Amino acid sequence: MATSSLRMRADHSVLVLVDYQQRLMPAIADADEVLRRAGFVAAVARQLGVPVIGTAQNPDKLGPNISPVGEQLDRVVAKMTFGACEGGLDEVLAELDGAEPPRDVVVAGCETHVCLLQTALGLLEGGRRVWVIADASGSRHAHDKAAALDRLAYARATIVTAEMVAFEWLRTAAHDDFRAVSKLVKEL
Fold first, then answer.
1. Which of 84, 102, 159, 174 could be stapled to 89 by a disulfide with Cβ–Cβ 3.0 to 4.6 Å?
2. pLDDT one-digit tens code per residue, 117-142
3. Integer Cα distance of 13 and 70 in angstroms
4. Full-prediction pTM beyond 0.85?
């Protein structure tokens, strides 16, 4: 495998943010930090033209995705299944792809060990390359989040941080959007 194929590319990525919902977030450990990091990576994605797709688990009961995530979403996939691939995300990604090879998926969300885990596993099963943003994901309990990230790494998802995504998408300080993204990093 060539070294370049191990890195995320903004022009070949989609960001999927799983279930940052009104009634779910108060139960998430370090929810403010998780939301802040998810909002940051969503803002970077928007700055760089990366599509931002959100999911909403049973939105009638759990409410909409909240700030700073909700307003950054290009689309929301409402679902009743825990994994978003079974809930319609695969169709949205196929629509975005338009041609082979499929887009790489950068994903974060709540709860890490339930909906994020099952979504990422579904993406991997579908042949996609998956990066999971650890610091923008959360669960009620740290041990559940840790176990999910270990399982995803074992399943060949790559575990990253929000800043890793930002700078990997940029690739160089000569990028036209470097100053704008650097400002977002400083605000993080």
1. 84
2. 999 999 999 989 999 999 999 999 99
3. 19
4. yes
